[in-house]
Design a protein that fits this description.
Blueprint: H1 6-13, H2 17-24, H3 32-44, H4 51-58, E1 63-68, H5 74-89, E2 93-98, H6 103-115, E3 120-123, H7 133-140, E4 145-148, E5 158-162, H8 164-177, E6 183-187, H9 193-208, E7 218-220, H10 226-239, E8 245-248, H11 251-263, E9 273-275, H12 282-285, E10 292-294, H13 297-317, E11 325-328, E12 331-333
Helix pairs in contact: 1-2, 1-3, 2-3, 5-13, 8-9, 10-11
């Protein structure tokens, strides 16, 4: 089908192209009758504005990029919902990409978004991302960048996070307050900042409450998922460690551990208390329900786009913008998996 132009609408109605353009944009100096005629004709001809022409004129694509480690993940799904809803309210299309926790793929995706000339980029880093030159390159192309959840302190851009160290401290303290003396930690990979901070929060809580830190009670969960939780729990049982509490880096790792304990006749919380992190929907659906830290994914998503929008507006207006860091509140959710 041949593209319908403003000129064609103007010729059909016997008016100028300028009048047609103004009518479609609801200019006040065009009569209601003319607006109605133009809009009716545009609808009849299935007219669609030329997006590329608009972008060239406004120097905006009205498109932003979003890169997350996983899409099928309760926390990131909540973040995506918050971002998309806020972006749609402001007339932006969100290109959503999944890095699958791969630095190489993440780098390709950033390059793709740069080539697409998106107005801004939002990203939660892959676990193995150390080199941040691809992000600096985006910023060198004058593309606003906002990091959320998994961030790099080396990149000077806006960020929206939680205080992972304090949240992990509170989670571990909850186990201590409930009577646990020997607490294991199912931690994440070595690189992500949130994994580091949650480990440090766990360790500090032990030290502050007179409990000795034992590195043999820290189990690595690279992907922090259900299977990782199962593997760590199986290893814990095999090691025959005297443990009465577990702080897991995510709810899914905690749930994986709980299923293994059930299979081995280990009762939760009578024999061992389990504490998760994130407050995913599944944490309430299992038996016993999982005690956890509430991590506001939807609010983080909305806040991420708002920070990006603020910088994009400043850029368009030619106003210098100083990167901002916003820290969202978390809290302990007490359920039946802890005493």
């Amino acid at each position: 089908m041949k593209e319908v132009t403003l000129k064609q609408i103007a010729e059909n109605l016997g008016i100028s192209i300028t009048t047609v353009s103004k009518a479609l944009k609801n200019y006040s100096d065009v009569s209601k009758k003319t607006k109605a005629l133009v809009k009716e004709e545009a609808k009849k001809l299935h007219y669609k504005p030329n997006v590329f022409a608009v972008n060239l004129r406004t120097k905006e694509s009205k498109t932003v990029g979003l890169i997350v480690p996983e899409i099928v993940h309760h926390f990131f799904s909540s973040v995506i919902n918050g971002i998309v809803e806020e972006a749609e309210r402001k007339g932006y299309l969100v290109i959503i990409l999944q890095s699958n926790e791969s630095y190489k793929l993440e780098r390709k995706q950033v390059d793709l978004l740069i080539s697409k000339r998106v107005d801004g980029i939002m990203i939660s880093l892959a676990n193995d991302t150390v080199d941040t030159s691809h992000l600096l390159e985006a910023m060198e192309h004058d593309i606003p960048l906002v990091m959320f959840d998994k961030i790099s302190k080396l990149v000077k851009c806006s960020k929206i996070i939680i205080n992972d160290r304090q949240a992990a401290y509170n989670a571990t303290k909850h186990l201590i307050d409930s009577g646990c003396k020997n607490i294991a930690h199912f931690r994440g990979a070595l690189l992500p900042q949130n994994s580091i901070d949650r480990f440090l929060g766990y360790k500090k809580a032990l030290e502050d409450h007179g409990l000795k830190y034992d590195s043999s009670l820290v189990y690595m969960c690279e992907r922090v998922d259900y299977e990782d939780g199962r593997r760590a729990a199986e290893q814990l049982i095999k090691d025959a460690k005297k443990v009465d509490g577990i702080f897991a880096i995510t709810d899914m790792a905690a749930v994986g551990a709980m299923t293994v304990f059930k299979e081995h006749g280990i009762k939760v919380p009578e024999d061992i208390s389990v504490m998760g992190f994130s407050n995913w929907f599944l944490s309430q659906a299992i038996t016993p329900a999982l005690s956890t830290i509430n991590q506001p994914g939807y609010e983080m998503g909305r806040g991420t786009f708002k920070l990006l929008r603020k910088e994009m507006k400043a850029k368009k207006a030619g106003i210098p913008f100083e990167p901002q860091t916003k820290v969202l509140e978390t809290f302990v959710v007490k359920r039946e998996s802890t005493k």
